[in-house]
Amino acid sequence: MNTTKERLTVMLPSDNEIHMERTFDAPRALVFEAVTRPEHVTKWWGCGGGVEKLAVCEIDLRVGGSYRFLIRKPGGQEYAFKGVYREIVQPSRLVYTQIYDVEPFNTHEAIVTTIFDEHDGRTTLRETTWCASKAVRDGWLQSGMEQGAGKSLDALAELLQTLKNA
Asked: CA 113 to CA 96: how far, in whole Å?
């Protein structure tokens, strides 16, 4: 087992893109499953730190199928995300749209490409989000996306260890 805590790396390759990478000590088929099956996604997505709850997790994993996630915070605030799957190559690639369905962000659809790359039983998740403009990209960054993604991916790493040991 790798004792080094992996970290989320965030890069800005262009004015329209956010690129995130994180490596997990798990095979890519398991990482892909944990990212695409509602029974797993509810345990990690948007739930870093345990105070938020993913109250809705709907996934229709097929090209043209949609997803919808709703985070509910303890005070009752809700944050919705939705999109449509454009490409699915199991277990190596997903392309989908994403809308942060909260004013004023809900008018800006992003395109997310996620690559699952396995080497020696470890999987690097590489996710590139293309935004309509630099202003939209910067709005996503200023919304706390990086911190939230880091916490969520930490929770995913913990879930993957549990799934590996089951």
From this structure: 7
126-158 pLDDT, tens digit per residue, is 999 999 999 989 988 887 888 888 888 999 999
Q: Can you list the domains of the chain with their CATH numbers?
A: 10-165 (3.30.530.20)
Helix (H, G, I), strand (E, B) or coil at 81: strand
Is the pTM value of this prediction over 0.85?
Answer: yes
Q: Identify the three-state secondary structure at position 5.
A: coil
Q: Give yes or no for a contact between 86 and 63, defined as CB atoms under 8 angstroms apart.
A: yes
Residues 6+ apart with CB under 8 A from 100: 79, 80, 81, 106, 108, 140, 143
How far is Cα 136 from Cα 110, in angstroms, rounded to an integer?
Answer: 9
Helices assigned H by DSSP within the chain: 28-36, 38-41, 134-142, 145-165
Residues 6 or more apart whose Cβ sits within 8 Å of residue 3 = none
What pLDDT, in 10s, does the model give residues 65-105? 999 999 888 888 888 999 999 999 999 999 999 998 888 77
